[in-house]
């Protein structure tokens, strides 16, 4: 089945630690995105990538980093500089920007312990 | 700046009722509009995508309409079932197509 796979489903981060969230798609989509979802605030864009080896900051990129070395993979690293990382993280992809249908993964819930 | 609003924030209905969820957007120059469903603790599932040139799209018991001139879209759910209970989100792309702008959703509860 084609789709987007996010792992892990749950992740716990200690203070001062960097953690990486995985996102893999087999839809052959060029564009991939990371969103953060917080209760009462809706979804906010962290980073997006239109093609391999290129990515751009979204609205809330501070404290996050990404890479796009392969078309199917777009991992997100939450660094120690992100002061409030507890949230639900969603990865998405689309054929070509959001002019085409967007598909989302099942999400990763990150909790600071 | 584009803003998307969904009213009501929550809705409770008995099983079998037909219902309408509303979505409004401030900038009518949209490329498309997409409706999603989100179950608690899960990701988003795409329900319907309406292109700007279309007036409506149908999938099973779901029908979505789009009125660009008034900045509105509605999602009609026929003969609601308890399994329809979820949060429904609408979203439009920004002008560059690099981000989806979401409403905050309508949480639907269908009781049996």
Folded structure, characterized:
- The complex is a heterodimer of chains A (113) and B (112).
- Chain A is an all-beta fold and 113 residues long.
- Chain A is 0% helix and 52% strand.
- Chain A is built from no helices and 11 strands.
- In chain A, the strands form 2 sheets. In chain A, strands 2, 4, 5, 6, 9, 10 and 11 form a 7-stranded mixed beta sheet that branches. In chain A, strands 1-3-8-7 form a 4-stranded antiparallel beta sheet, with no helix packed on it.
- The mean pLDDT of chain A is 94.
- By secondary structure, chain B is mainly beta.
- Chain B is built from no helices and 11 strands.
- In chain B, strands 2, 4, 5, 9, 10 and 11 form a 6-stranded mixed beta sheet that branches. A 5-stranded antiparallel beta sheet of chain B has the order 1-3-8-7-6, with no helix packed on it.
- In chain B, strand 6 (56-59) and strand 7 (62-67) form a beta hairpin.
- Chain B is globular and about 45 Å long.
- At the A-B interface, strand 5, strand 9 and strand 10 of A face strand 4, strand 5 and strand 9 of B.
List the helices and strands and how they pair.
The complex is a heterodimer of chains A (about 110) and B (about 110).
Chain A: E1 4-7, E2 10-13, E3 19-25, E4 31-38, E5 42-51, E6 54-57, E7 64-66, E8 76-78, E9 87-94, E10 102-104, E11 108-112
Parallel strand pairs in A: 2-11
Antiparallel strand pairs in A: 1-3, 3-8, 4-5, 4-9, 5-6, 7-8, 9-10, 9-11
Chain B: E1 4-7, E2 10-14, E3 19-25, E4 32-38, E5 44-51, E6 56-59, E7 62-67, E8 72-77, E9 86-93, E10 100-102, E11 106-111
Parallel strand pairs in B: 2-11
Antiparallel strand pairs in B: 1-3, 3-8, 4-5, 4-9, 6-7, 7-8, 9-10, 9-11
Report the radius of gyration of chain A as a whole number of Å.
Answer: 13 Å
What summary fits the major beta sheet of chain B? 6 strands, mixed
Number of strands of chain B: 11
List how many beta strands of chain A DSSP finds. Answer: 11
Give the tags.
heterodimer; A: 113 residues; mainly beta; 11 strands; globular; B: 112 residues; five-stranded antiparallel β-sheet
């Amino acid at each position: 089945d084609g789709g987007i796979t996010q792992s892990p489903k749950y992740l716990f981060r200690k203070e001062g630690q960097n953690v990486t969230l995985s996102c893999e798609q087999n839809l052959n989509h060029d564009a991939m995105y990371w969103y953060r979802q917080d209760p009462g605030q809706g979804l906010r864009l962290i980073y997006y990538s239109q093609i391999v080896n290129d990515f751009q900051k979204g609205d809330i990129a501070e404290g996050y980093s990404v890479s796009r070395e392969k078309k199917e993979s777009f991992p997100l690293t939450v660094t120690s500089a992100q002061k409030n990382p507890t949230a639900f993280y969603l990865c998405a992809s689309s054929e070509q920007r959001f002019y085409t249908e967007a598909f989302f993964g099942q999400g990763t819930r990150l909790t600071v312990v | 700046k584009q803003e998307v609003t969904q009213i009501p924030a929550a809705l409770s209905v008995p099983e079998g009722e037909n219902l309408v969820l509303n979505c409004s957007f401030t900038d009518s120059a949209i490329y498309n509009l997409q409706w999603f469903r989100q179950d608690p603790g899960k990701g988003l599932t795409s329900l319907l995508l309406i292109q700007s040139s279309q007036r409506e799209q149908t999938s099973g018991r779901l029908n979505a309409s789009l009125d660009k001139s008034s900045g509105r879209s509605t999602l009609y759910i026929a003969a609601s079932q308890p399994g329809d209970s979820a949060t429904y989100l609408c979203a439009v792309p920004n002008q560059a197509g690099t981000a989806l702008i979401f409403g905050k959703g309508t949480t639907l509860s269908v009781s049996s």
